Sequence to fold (304 residues):
Amino acid sequence: MSKKILITGGTGFIGYHLAKKCLSYGWSVTSISSKKPSKHRRLKNVNYLICDIANKKNLQKKINQNFNYVVNLAGYVDHSKRQKTLKSHYNGCKNLAIIFKGSKIKKFIQIGSCIEYGKQKSPQKEDENIFNKTYSVYGKAKLMSTRFLLNLYKESNFPVTILRLYLVYGTHQDPNRIIPITIMNSLKNNEFECSKGTQIRDFLYIDDLISAIIKVLKSKKSIGEIFNIGSGKPIMIRNIIYKIHKIIKSGKPLFGKIKFRRDEIMKLYPNTSKIKKILSWKQKININVGLKKTIAFYKKKYVQ
Fold:
């Protein structure tokens, strides 16, 4: 029988790619988001539901418990609004978990964040017994969600897995992140302001993330675990910009024009040994190949 998956935040960048992959397996896909999908991220055969998951009553009316898998990608994007961020990322997660607590779902994946580690030094390693102080309302909401879900797992064997993502990039991403911003400005041969670019980050191509999610969904060994999801190959932001510039051969980055944030974390990258050991997953698409695929997408969609 066809698997049934509920993807909250299914109209977003990651949700779009996950839904597309699930459809390719012949699965039944339902998406819940607060807004309709944009034209370039709408997929045939996806059941799109509009609902704020922070509103428990409306959520209960919209969905039933008849799903094999739930992947929670939902959450308010503008993290400057404290209460709305907490409600969407924590209350929403809690509402979903409570609704599915008594169901027969095989897996509930919570998409967490590396920001949950606070200022723990990189390479950051998963340890459910260490809960560091976070430095943003978004990080706090994600960490509260992790605690709640792991307690639910311990108390009632709720089949949850937490995935802590680092920087994911690729096709169909909104052009408001460092890689698409650099690509767009380079394709248009613009001058564009940057920081010094000395921050070290971990970038993972979207297809590799989706393969990790699918592997987690199908594995019983992943239940009750936290996994870092990243390439495990940190790179300086400045070098990412140089790589894009080298491929496109245009654009003028103005390094040092943007000051670092007061709370800027200069080194942020994961230890990925746990997911390699337990699930035999690792990055397959290196940064050079991933950038070329991403550049080709933006060139076709926005420039030509």
In short: The chain has nine helices and 14 strands. Residues 119 and 265 are 7 Å apart (CA to CA). The mean pLDDT is 93. The radius of gyration is 19 Å.
